[in-house]
């Protein structure tokens, strides 16, 4: 009886304890629920904020572009506005000078001459400032054309002769006849700048101009040497020389006038054309300026060259057709892509783009959406409706965000301008199938993972076969030998290790590169077991897509370029 | 104090003594909780003191000794519940060093306002380790028992010397562990 | 005396050029927009046409094309005056049929040399 009571009490206590535990559990569950709610709200809020921020950024982006366009427009307008009254000052003063000369009034002539010279100085200054502004904002265009060097030199001399002779100087000229392909206007400006400086800083001395062919770093070109016997410069002065707004020192500005912009512009021009300016000077003994420019390429030649160099490029011959009406963007894109080793062709209008696309059949087309002559959307539509062109992936470079329209019309990818180099190359890489449909076998029992890897590889241009375990995999290989195997370790029926052993038994199969992709943490012993059998072991969950793809490429190209090993045909692949 | 201590205690009494004594101890202690403990609950530490008192009266054994023995028993229970923590540490000293950081972090995760004792420890030299227990609750004996439990578990030959902190108060103590000497002289 | 038709919308430029050309012994007729310019050329058949390329009503390029398309006006030497110094403008001028071009600000001496060359042909 006593024992019964005892047991009953114990039971009571147990029951009470259980109820308490249940209460605590329920309370905790409720807490979790509320916290989840909070998290969800926070998440939504975050997403809203991200959307907001993205919209703000897009707006800021558009505004920045607007501002930039406005600035360009402003510069262009200013240019005109500033020059017009100056023309009047210069023109009228010249005219009045003529009148004064006929009236034989030397004082008038003098005064009018001063006005004329001041006007011309102002004009030079304005031109320099506008040039510098254009250079600095990247709006300076380059226009390549052939020029007869002797004729150019003569032309330049005509302009600078009065200036040189004014200082009581004599001119010496040496010119090696020939042609140079470069931006003639800029070269002329540089030469006039150098000769003008020589004239300015030399009195009763000698100014020599020499133009000779010169090859630098294996590139043919012309060197223009301007030597004077003037005041020269100290090493410190030379150092400050090419900085804009800094003349050798302020005392020279006062004595010799000038703005100090000319050399900065000249240097920029030379660099833009692929050359450079060098200087040697001795204080009190004169200076030598040498401007070297390479033989440039005319636009047609450039295109031809890039098409021809396709054969010698390290990568397979690939071409990207760029369609963009904006010359600077085209140049930029061309430079980005050229450095990545692809060959490019370009078209400045939709119509030309379509023509070239049909002629060249590029692997990828890069298309600008906003073009005045032919609406980019219309071009895209035309490409996708042309049976010969519709399979070429089109990457749209756009300043608008009509992604939906783009994708619905068949664009493979839409990138917003301004487009960065890495970004562009990354995208191109996706579509340029270097892999020629190389067969790859994915051995993985988890359906989702298998699916994901297959899709990833397929996009890279590989032909993918899948197997759910080691046995299946061996069967697949019997049927068609892959060039690469992606292998999971933990699988039913026959796991990764066993599979590898079997693989190694077969003569032709043991050379197939294998990349192990596994969720299992591989112990050092296991790694040892795998060593020699596999190309690389990658941890699922810790690897990222790009690294995996890099490994795959490495494995693939390593086996593809094996000179000693048997060729795919010899291996018995069909 | 965490429910797990109470549930372990009662289990120990039922096992080592008898159901009857357990019943007597619980009833005699006149506990506000009625002696119904769930391991996930939290209860007043004074109930533990009451239970210990009752057990001492019922068995005639000293309270301090009872608590020490309980400490060893409790340690074994905790091992069963959190084996991974002990596996991570290769010896008594290593284990005790981590007590403060690991256990307390784990406890605080689930019970942010748990009141836990502070443990400070360190090496006097390679074979000598000290651990200081400080609490607002008088369970230095329990700590001692747990330490012994650890020594038993790892099977090391370690001698424990207890020194008083704050006078003879049971809320603080310093334990000096020497390895390699005769265990339990 | 030889006649030059000057098509220039800026009053000061027109005035300056007219006076200077007159001083050099030319008779000068002027128009201040492209349409009038073309019409005057057809009507009066000057010995040479000097035309600014940015004009109101009818743009200088278009006017140039029309002049070179017209039976009567084609043989008249046409000199374009362009405000920009870009090489592409030069190409444009020559493409539109201009016989010569000169960039502003005008180097009067150089312009005279060009005119004389064209008129002596």
TrEMBL record, chain A:
Domain of life the protein comes from: Bacteria
Modified positions (4-aspartylphosphate) in chain numbering: 368, 488
EC number: 2.7.13.3
Domain Histidine kinase span(s) in chain numbering: 77-297
CDD domains: HATPase_EvgS-ArcB-TorS-like, HisKA, REC_OmpR
Coiled-coil segments: 4-55
A Pfam short name: Response_reg
Domain Response regulatory: 319-432, 439-555
UniProt KW keywords: ATP-binding, Coiled coil, Kinase, Nucleotide-binding, Phosphoprotein, Transferase, Two-component regulatory system
Disordered as annotated region, ranges: 555-574
Reactions catalysed according to its record: ATP + protein L-histidine = ADP + protein N-phospho-L-histidine
GO molecular function ontology, one term from the record: phosphorelay sensor kinase activity
GO annotation, cellular component aspect: plasma membrane
Family: In the N-terminal section; belongs to the phytochrome family.
PANTHER family to which the protein is assigned, alphabetical: OSMOSENSING HISTIDINE PROTEIN KINASE SLN1, TWO-COMPONENT HISTIDINE PROTEIN KINASE
The protein, known as: Circadian input-output histidine kinase CikA
Source organism of the structure: Paenibacillus sabuli
Automatic annotation (TrEMBL), chain B:
Entry GO MF terms: heme binding
Coiled coil: none
Family matches, as Gene3D superfamilies: H-NOX domain
Species the sequence originates in: Paenibacillus sabuli
Name of this protein: Heme NO-binding domain-containing protein
Signal sequence region: none
Domain of life: Bacteria
Residue ranges of domain Heme NO-binding in the record: 2-161
TrEMBL record, chain C:
Pfam families xref list: Response_reg
Any one GO BP annotation for this protein: phosphorelay signal transduction system
4-aspartylphosphate modified-residue sites: 52
InterPro entries (alphabetical): CheY-like_superfamily (IPR011006), Sig_transdc_resp-reg_receiver (IPR001789)
Residues in Response regulatory domain copies: 3-119
UniProt keyword annotations, A-Z: Phosphoprotein
Transmembrane segment boundaries: none
Name of the protein described by the UniProt record: Response regulator
The organism of origin for this protein: Paenibacillus sabuli
């Amino acid at each position: 009886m006593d024992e019964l009571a005892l047991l009953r009490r114990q039971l009571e206590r147990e029951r009470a304890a259980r109820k308490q535990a249940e209460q605590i559990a329920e309370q905790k569950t409720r807490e979790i629920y509320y916290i989840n709610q909070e998290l969800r709200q926070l998440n939504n809020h975050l997403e809203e904020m991200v959307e907001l921020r993205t919209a703000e950024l897009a707006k800021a982006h558009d505004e920045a572009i607007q501002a930039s366009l406005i600035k360009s427009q402003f510069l262009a307008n200013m240019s005109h506005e500033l020059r017009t009254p100056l023309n009047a000052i210069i023109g009228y003063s010249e005219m009045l000078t003529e009148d004064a000369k006929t009236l034989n009034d030397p004082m008038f002539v003098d005064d009018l001459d001063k006005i004329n010279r001041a006007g011309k100085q102002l004009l030079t200054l304005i031109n320099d400032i506008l040039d510098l502004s254009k250079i600095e904002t990247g709006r300076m265009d380059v226009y390549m054309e052939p020029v007869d060097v002797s004729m150019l030199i003569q032309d330049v001399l005509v302009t600078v002769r009065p200036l040189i002779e004014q200082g009581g100087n004599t001119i010496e000229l040496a010119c090696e006849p020939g042609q140079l392909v470069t931006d003639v206007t800029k070269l002329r400006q540089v030469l006039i700048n150098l000769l003008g400086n020589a004239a300015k800083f030399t009195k009763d001395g000698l100014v020599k101009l020499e133009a000779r062919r010169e090859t630098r770093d294996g590139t043919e070109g012309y060197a223009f040497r301007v030597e004077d016997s003037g005041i020269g410069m100290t090493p410190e002065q030379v150092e400050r020389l090419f900085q804009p707004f800094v003349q050798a020192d302020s005392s020279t500005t006062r004595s010799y006038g000038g703005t100090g912009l000319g050399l900065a512009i000249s240097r920029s021009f030379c660099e833009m054309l692929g050359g450079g300016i060098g200087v040697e000077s001795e204080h009190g003994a004169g200076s030598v300026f040498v401007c070297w420019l390479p033989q440039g390429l005319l636009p047609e030649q450039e295109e031809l060259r890039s098409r021809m160099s396709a054969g010698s490029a390290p990568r397979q011959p690939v071409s990207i057709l760029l369609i963009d009406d904006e010359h600077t963007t085209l140049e930029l894109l061309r430079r980005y892509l050229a450095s990545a080793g692809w060959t490019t062709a370009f078209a400045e209008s939709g119509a030309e783009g379509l023509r070239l696309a049909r002629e060249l059949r590029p692997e990828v087309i890069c298309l600008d959406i906003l073009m005045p002559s032919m609406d980019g959307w219309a071009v895209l539509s035309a490409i996708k409706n042309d049976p010969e062109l519709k399979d070429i992936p089109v990457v749209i470079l756009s300043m608008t965000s009509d992604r939906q329209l783009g994708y619905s019309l068949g664009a493979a990818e839409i990138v917003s301008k301004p487009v960065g180099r890495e970004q562009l190359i990354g995208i191109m890489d996706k579509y340029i199938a270097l892999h020629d449909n190389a067969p790859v076998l994915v051995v993985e029992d988890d359906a989702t993972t298998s699916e994901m890897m297959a899709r990833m590889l397929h996009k890279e241009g590989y032909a993918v076969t899948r197997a759910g375990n080691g046995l299946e995999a061996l069967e697949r290989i019997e049927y068609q030998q892959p060039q690469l195997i992606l292998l999971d370790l933990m699988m039913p029926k026959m796991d990764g290790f066993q599979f590898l052993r079997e693989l190694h038994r077969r003569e032709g199969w043991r050379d197939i590169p294998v990349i192990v992709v596994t969720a299992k943490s591989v112990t050092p012993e296991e790694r040892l077991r795998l060593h020699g059998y596999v190309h690389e072991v990658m941890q699922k969950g810790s690897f990222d897509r790009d690294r995996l793809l890099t490994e795959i490429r490495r494995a693939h190209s390593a086996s593809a370029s094996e000179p000693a090993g048997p060729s795919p045909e010899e291996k018995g692949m069909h | 104090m965490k429910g797990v201590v109470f549930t372990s205690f009662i289990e120990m009494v039922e096992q080592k003594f008898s159901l009857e004594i357990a019943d007597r101890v619980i009833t005699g202690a006149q506990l506000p909780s009625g002696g119904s403990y769930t391991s996930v609950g939290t209860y007043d530490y004074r109930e533990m003191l009451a239970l210990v008192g009752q057990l001492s009266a019922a068995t005639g054994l000293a309270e301090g000794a009872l608590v020490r023995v309980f400490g060893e028993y409790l340690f074994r229970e905790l091992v069963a519940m959190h084996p991974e923590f002990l596996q991570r540490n290769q010896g008594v000293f290593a284990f005790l060093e981590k007590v403060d950081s690991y256990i307390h972090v784990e406890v605080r995760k689930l019970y942010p306002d748990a009141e836990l004792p502070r443990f400070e420890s360190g090496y006097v030299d390679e074979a000598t380790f000290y651990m200081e227990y400080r609490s607002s609750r008088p369970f230095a004996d329990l700590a001692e028992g747990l330490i012994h439990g650890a020594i038993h578990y790892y099977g090391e030959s370690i001698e424990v010397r207890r020194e008083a902190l704050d006078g003879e108060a049971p809320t603080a103590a310093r334990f000096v562990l020497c390895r390699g000497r005769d265990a339990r002289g | 005396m030889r006649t030059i038709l000057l098509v220039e919308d800026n009053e000061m430029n027109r005035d300056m050029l007219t006076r200077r050309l007159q001083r050099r012994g030319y008779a000068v007729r002027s128009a201040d927009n492209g349409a009038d310019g073309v019409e005057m050329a057809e009507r009066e058949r000057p010995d040479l046409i000097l035309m600014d390329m940015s004009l109101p009503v009818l743009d200088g390029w278009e006017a140039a094309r029309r002049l070179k398309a017209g039976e009567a006006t084609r043989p008249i030497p046409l000199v374009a005056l362009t405000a920009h110094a870009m090489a592409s403008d030069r190409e444009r001028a020559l493409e539109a049929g201009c016989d010569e071009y000169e960039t502003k600000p005008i180097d009067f001496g150089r312009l005279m040399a060009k005119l004389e060359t064209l008129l002596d042909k």
